[in-house]
Amino acid sequence: MAPESQRPALSGSRLQISQGLVTMVIAVVAVLVLGFLVAPSSLAPGVLLGMIPFASVLAIAGLGQMLVVQQAGIDLSVPGAVSIAVVLTTHVPNGDSSRLGIAVLLCIAFAVVGGLVNGFLVGVMGLNAVITTLGSNGLMFGVILAISGGVPRTTTSLLASITNGTVLGIPNSLLLLAVALMLVSLLLKKTVPGRRFEGIGASPAASRAMGLRVRTHKVSAYVWAQLLYSLAGIMLAGIVAQPTAYLGNNYLLPSVAVVVLGGTSLLGGRGFPIATIVAAFFLTQLEQFSLALGVPYAARTLMQAGALVLGVAIYTINWGRVRRWLRSRGRASVQPAAA
After folding, report:
1. How far apart are CA 254 and CA 63, in angstroms?
2. pLDDT tens, position by position, for the chain (339 residues)?
3. How distant, in Å, are the alpha carbons of 156, 184, 185 from that of 190?
4. Residues with Cβ < 8 Å from 28, sequence gap 6 or more?
5. Is-contact 121 113, C-beta < 8 A?
């Protein structure tokens, strides 16, 4: 990804707006206009209301992935982390709402352990993040199969009422997303540890020379990420009446895509939580648009991959250099013709 200087923010006296946020807002408006012109059914009120909970789940998972990417890592254990929360919140209560609290505590415990394992192996031992998190993802699915046996269970009425309910007409899933966004934004942008976290991601060597605890911050990124994945899984278990043990598989590529589309550099450093959330709603609405057009699943997966490639291209390629090269090529082709 491009260095921070190549991704300027639009700034006023007090407000700073990232390039990623501007790009994603334009993209959301574009897909809404396109849906209105080509597939109006994708903008039906019922469709939009049904889209919000799934977009919120993706946005929360994206916030977790963003924290890891800020430390120049990547977390491929998202499917296992989301799925294990789904399984625990459905199989442990087994329809009994009074046991939901125990299930949530188990989700938190599994998330902390999973985050510490990933963080220790990557941040302390220095192992490759891709291989490490892919391996832990496999271990998580082993635990999932041991708990569930591959048989889905119906979610509890309490969890379903919480995730699918509304407060003053606002979906609870959107409120939970707002709480997660507020916590992540405040911790990153308004606290000293958050500033250190972003500084370490941008330059670990310089941070180490300043005496900052680089390894501790890298480990904490994976722990907080697992907690956010767990929250996403708990919400998903409430949204879907009878969730399967493999629902988390739908969030691996999109969780990375929303981070990249939101403008967070894959090389680490500054993160953009609001832009990441807008990117999640963009991808989810793009999915609804594709469904309205009858696009097959394989093509929709390619569209997500294409969005990821586009996001990398937008923030990585030096477009000023490309424009200068094209102008120089144009002048070179015109001069022989004039001669």
Report:
1. 12
2. 444 434 445 544 444 677 778 888 988 998 899 888 888 888 888 888 889 999 999 999 999 999 999 998 999 999 999 999 999 999 999 889 999 999 999 999 999 999 999 999 999 999 999 999 999 999 999 999 999 887 889 999 999 999 999 998 899 999 999 999 999 999 988 888 888 898 888 888 888 888 888 899 999 999 999 999 999 999 999 999 889 888 999 899 899 989 998 888 888 888 899 999 999 999 999 888 888 888 777 777 777 677 767 766 666 666 567 677 777 766 666 665 555
3. 37, 10, 8
4. 278, 281, 282, 285
5. no
Q: How many C-alpha atoms does 313 have within 13 Å on its Cβ side? A: 7
The beta strand positions in the chain, using DSSP E, are 10-11, 16-17, 166-167, 170-171
Distances 244 to 21, 236, 250, 281, 321 between C-alpha atoms, Å: 34, 10, 12, 23, 49
pTM, entire model: 0.87
Q: How far apart are CA 256 and CA 249, in angstroms?
A: 13
Place of tokens 């334009």: 26
SS (H, E, C) 276-322: HHHHHHHHHHHHHHHHHHCCCHHHHHHHHHHHHHHHHHHHHCCHHHH
Residue labelled with tokens 């699918």: 164
